[in-house]
Specification:
The protein is built from 10 helices and 16 strands. The strands form 3 sheets. Strands 8, 9, 10, 11, 12, 13, 14, 15 and 16 form a 9-stranded antiparallel beta sheet that branches. A 4-stranded antiparallel beta sheet has the order 4-7-5-6, with helices on both faces. The chain has 354 residues and is α+β, with helices and mostly antiparallel strands. The chain starts with a strand and ends with a helix. Helix 1 links the parallel strand 1 and strand 2 (28-31). The relative contact order is 0.12.
Length: 354
Amino acid sequence: MTQPIAILGMGQLGWMLSRAGERIGASVQLLDPDAPEQPGPNTLISVESEHWPDNPGTRQLRAHPGWQNPNALDILPNRIQQKTVLDELQLPTAPWCRPKDDDQAKDLHQTLGPDFLLKRARGGYDGRGQLRVKASEATPLPDWKTEAIAESAIGFDTEVSLVGARGRDGRCVFYPLTENYHRQGVLTVSLSQPTRFSALQRTAETMLTKLMDHLDYVGLMAMECFLVGDKLLINEIAPRVHNSGHWTQEGATICQFELHLRALLGWPMPQPETRGTTAMVNLLGMEHQQEWLAVTGARLYWYNKAHRPGRKMGHINLQHPEPQRIADWLRELPLPADYDESRAWALERLSFEG
């Protein structure tokens, strides 16, 4: 009998893990973080998010013999601890420090430069829990500064992410580096062009392997980086399946959700192969539109969540061996005006793949 897997979380990532499990014959159960059912002793427990409520049920899950990746899930959700372990491993990140109680903005500017970001140590993501502080503006530091990191604002060329998985035998496999565009801190478009960052692929894989080996991690992990010239600086690490890996559902022989389950179960993990160019468009704060389905290449994943402005309501994947077809479909895709910059960015980047 297949060893069952329970996923802490009932959002879209858990749903897509469950769907992937059904297809390959893996038993996947989703657990409500607010009142999680306690699975049987033989169950492997993973997460769809590195942040969950602290309650008796989740504390009991963390003591369960099947709780996976305790080291990673203790360290990585806290930015102070995450940055500290990256420094210990000599993995490159933006300059940072932990603000002291008596620090003023001018003190941090002296250390970090004229423009820095204050990021809550826990809980902030998708641009939340962050404050940009410029020397040219009189910005008072918030009262949560000592529960945050201060990080130099980096003038980067572009943002990329590496999604990879480590098996129980320590073997790692990776997808190609993916280029990402964010609007107000939230991912709007990802582009996978297999040869776009081939010169940096081995370097990125070595960096993520070093971290996963150090944490004895099993499963899928994402590493978001700034690209500055020919150098990668790690921005954040996510110990789970990741938004910037959604393109793999159409663009790779094994999608990220299936790969995570295979790693947890100790099942075969061949190196995924890509299928040409793939674009992923996040659908933020939108109502469902049938018109998306009129675009020939649009593969829609709708999350069936209650509508809320800015919320991730679904995503669309566009995949084709010829990048020009992706560009044509992107132009056809009905999107609101606030996607104009994201669309223009993607169309410009697609010209790199000839």
